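Structure (tokenized):
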């Protein structure tokens, strides 16, 4: 298997966008939920597209991981488009869709840990493992208690967007040395 070299520009741009979105969500918690739904919809479309691109890049490998990336990407894009087109309805549906998206995205990332370890090393591997396990736990907490989701969705989403942004930026810089 050939190691990828060069700087990860896509990961860097995605990471900066996710961190900016996470900071905005923390700083402006008084924003209307429908406005946040629109922004999260855009983030879901971008992250879904990134998962689909990941599938295209690793489709030559066999196994369950690349297929999960495609499914996660399609679900993210569909969810994101729905949230952008119908933000008011999306605010209600978000309490169900957001945890499912959270879980699907974390599972997709966890299936790629072997590739991440190979490309980026052990440190990034462990960081990504911890971030995505935390995401799975939070996702299942939100599924089990929708009222909990309604009350805490902004905090969870903001924190997770920040973690995903940091993860993407670290991945971008880790590719420079390979």
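Design, position by position:
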């Amino acid at each position: 298997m050939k190691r990828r070299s060069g700087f990860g520009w896509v990961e860097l741009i995605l990471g900066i966008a996710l961190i900016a979105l996470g900071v905005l969500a923390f700083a402006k918690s008084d924003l209307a939920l429908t406005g946040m739904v629109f922004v999260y919809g855009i983030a879901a479309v971008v992250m879904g597209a990134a998962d689909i691109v990941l599938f295209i890049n690793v489709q030559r490998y066999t196994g369950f991981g690349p297929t999960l990336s495609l499914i996660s990407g399609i679900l993210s894009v569909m969810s994101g488009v729905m949230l952008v087109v119908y933000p008011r309805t999306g605010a209600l549906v978000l309490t169900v869709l957001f945890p499912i998206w959270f879980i699907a995205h974390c599972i997709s990332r966890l299936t790629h840990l072997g590739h991440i370890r190979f490309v980026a090393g052990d440190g990034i591997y462990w960081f990504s493992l911890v971030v995505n396990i935390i995401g799975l736990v939070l996702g299942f907490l939100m599924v089990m208690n929708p009222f909990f989701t309604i009350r805490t969705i902004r905090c969870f989403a903001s924190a997770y967007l920040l973690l995903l942004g940091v993860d993407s930026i670290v991945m971008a810089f880790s590719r420079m040395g390979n």
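Reviewer-requested clarification: The CA atoms of residues 96 and 143 lie 7 Å apart. The chain is about 85% helix and 0% strand.
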